[in-house]
Amino acid sequence: MSGIALVRKPGPRIAEGIVTHLTREPVDHERAAVQHDAYVAALAANGWRPVYVPPADDLPDAPFVEDAVVMSGRLAVLTRPGAPERRPEVESVAQAVRELGVMSVRITPPGTLDGGDVLQVGPTVYVGRSARTDADGIRQLTALLPERSVVPVELRGVLHLKSAVTALPDGTLIGDPDQVDLPGLLVPEEPAGAHVVVLGEDRVLLAASAPQTAAMLEKRGFFVTKVDISEYEKLEGCVTCLSVLVAG
After folding, report:
1. Which of 18, 55, 180, 214 could bridge across to 224 with cysteines, CB 3.0–4.6 Å?
2. Cα–Cα distance between 183 and 180 in angstroms, integer?
3. Is 36 a catalytic residue?
């Protein structure tokens, strides 16, 4: 598995990013930039060629590109974020998608959908019904992906679906049963262990803040790449938020 990783460098206002379920902490822009470079390098080392979305320094949450677009094969679904201040992020992501030659469609008003609420596992697309993604957004996504099975999921005390659960390369769901009701959950050793980026058939990316989960996954036969994203975790970010993988 390989392809392109859409990413966007953090701007100088990143510390002003939205915080919903956490107590705000100071965010160091320079450290966030160094961590982002290391994150992108980890993707590149695993076969994902980074493509940078144009800078958006006036939009604090812009490096969380996952929320602006959902990839289903070679179709890009441009979202309509639930937080109004994040909606201007989408146009520059749309530009990057066009330059890749990928066909795109859009979630339209009044529906809202954040990419962080969309978890794809084989033919199934789980979508969190959250403060950022509403029933109309889920209905639109279902209509735009007629070949997929879209399953709405209720959340508890968490920003996005993928803040609570993601999937391993073999399709196993890993997440917190206190935040989401899905069958057969593998429970991580740390909260950040619920956030996995699939890099290949036996490779995953995990936050450095989940070392015990990394060890658990290694025992299951996966090769784990760990990255420090502590500045982004202060903003409820996780490893999935910072990129959109477009399979080659």
Report:
1. 214
2. 10
3. no
pLDDT digits over 147-179, tens only?
999 999 999 999 999 999 999 999 999 999 999
> The pTM is what?
0.96
Q: Of residues 36, 195, 238, 241, which has the active-site annotation?
A: 241
Characterise 125 by phi-psi region: left (phi > 0), alpha (psi -120 to 50), beta (else).
Answer: beta
Q: Is 238 a catalytic residue?
A: no
Distance CA 65, CA 242 (A): 6
Catalytic residue (choose from 29, 36, 160, 195): 160
Find, among 150, 154, 180, 152, the residue nearest to 165 by Cα: 180
| Confidence class for position 54, pLDDT limits 50, 70, 90 | very high
Which pLDDT band, with edges at 50, 70 and 90, does 1 fall under?
A: low
Inter-CA distances, 139 with 112, 145, 146, Å: 10, 10, 11
Q: In the chain, where does DSSP find H-type helix?
A: 29-45, 89-99, 135-144, 161-164, 211-219, 230-233
Whole-number Å distance between alpha carbons of 58 and 201: 38
CA–CA separation, 155 and 147 (whole Å): 25
Please check whether residue 173 is in contact with residue 184, taking contact to mean a CB–CB distance below 8 angstroms.
yes
- Going by pLDDT thresholds of 50, 70 and 90, the confidence category of residue 80 is very high
